[in-house]
Amino acid sequence: MNFLKGTGKYVIFLVLTLIVGTIMTGCGSSTSGDDDGSKDGGDGELSGELNLFIWSEYMPDTILKQFEEETGIKVNYNVYSSNEEMLAKISAGAAGYDISVASDYMVEIMRKQNLLEKVDKENLANIDNLDPEFLNLEFDPDNDYSIPYMWGNVVIAINKDTVKKDVTSFEDLWDTEFKNSLVVLDDQRVLIGVGNKLQGESMNSTDSKVIQKSKDLLIDLLPNIKAYDSDSPKTMLINGEAKAGIVWGAEAYLAEKENPSIQTVLPDEGSNIWFDNFVIPAGAPNKKNAEAFIDFILKPEISAQIIEDFPYANPNKAAHELIDEDVMSHPAVYSNEEFLKKSEVFRDIEDAILEYDRAWSEIKQ
C-alpha cells in the first residue's frame, strides 16, 4: 500500500512568541552543557530533563521510567487532546517543550511556520528499524523535521449485543436506534470529514457548499451523540454507556479486549488514515535529550512494548516480530487493503480551515 498523499498549504493566524529559557549548568560541576541546553555530566553522557508534550494515553509510564533509568534524564510529561491544541500552545511559546507528537498535516503546518527544529539523524542509531514506506512522505520530505511514531485509522465500533441494525457505513449511525448512544471523536477534521465522505467528497474538501452540508449533517446527528471523547472513547463502549462510536482503531481493539461484545466495522466509505510523528519544537532547551528519547523509542523491544498498552499500527518494522499476532492481524489496527484504498490522509486545507472552525463551533454550540 502506498501511503504517499498530497499535502497543501495552510495559513495560521497565530503570533509566534516562542520564549524558551536555556539552562546551561553542568551536572555536579560548573561545566557548561551543549549548545542546545542538554546537560552533560562531563563524560559525554546526557542528563538533565526532557519536557514531553504528547496525546493522552499514548506513552506508557513504564517506558518513561525505563528511559529515565537508562539515561538519568528526568521526563516531565504534559498532554493535549488535539493537534490544534498542541499547535496553539507551542505557537504561543508554552513551557519550553523539548519533544511533541504531530500528525501528518500538522507537521507540514509547523514546518512552514518555522516552529520545528531539524532532527539530527546522526543521533538516531535505530532509525533503520523504520519501514522505508513510512519515510520521506510529502508532508516532510527527507524527514528533516519528523520521525514516525505510530499510524492508524478511524473506525466504527458497535456493541453487537445491543445494536440491532446492520451497520456497514457511517450513514447508518444517523438511525434513530442510536439516539443518545454514540461516542464520537472530539475532532473537527474527522467528523466534518465524515460528513464530506457521505456526500461522496474528499475529507479534505475546501468547497464551502460541501463544508456547509457536512455541518448540517452533523447537526442532524446531534440527538444521537451522547459524548465527544478523543482521549478514551473506549470507556463508554466497555461500560455500555454507548452502543456505538466513531473511534480510533486502537480504542476499538482495546474495547473489544475488555468487552467481547464490541465489534469493529470498517465503513464502506473509507475513513481517515493518519501518521503521527515525533517533532522537536523550535528553541527546545534539551534538543539532544529529545533525540536520545526518539532513538530509545526506535529500539524494537521498546516500540513493541508500547504496542502492548496502546495497540496502534507501528511503522517500526523491526518491532513487528515482537508484537502479538492478534494485534498484527486485527482489522481495527491493520485494516485491509480495500479499506485503506478508500481512506484518506488529512492535508493542509489552507484558509478553508476557518470554515471548518466556524462549522465546528456551530455544531457544538
UniProtKB/TrEMBL annotation:
Presence of keyword Transferase: no
Recorded protein name is: Spermidine/putrescine ABC transporter substrate-binding protein
Question: Which organism is the protein's source?
Answer: Siminovitchia acidinfaciens
Q: Name one Pfam family in it.
A: SBP_bac_8
Picking any one GO molecular function of the record gives: polyamine binding
Positions that bind spermidine:
57, 105
User: Record keywords: S-adenosyl-L-methionine included?
Assistant: no
Cellular component terms (Gene Ontology): periplasmic space
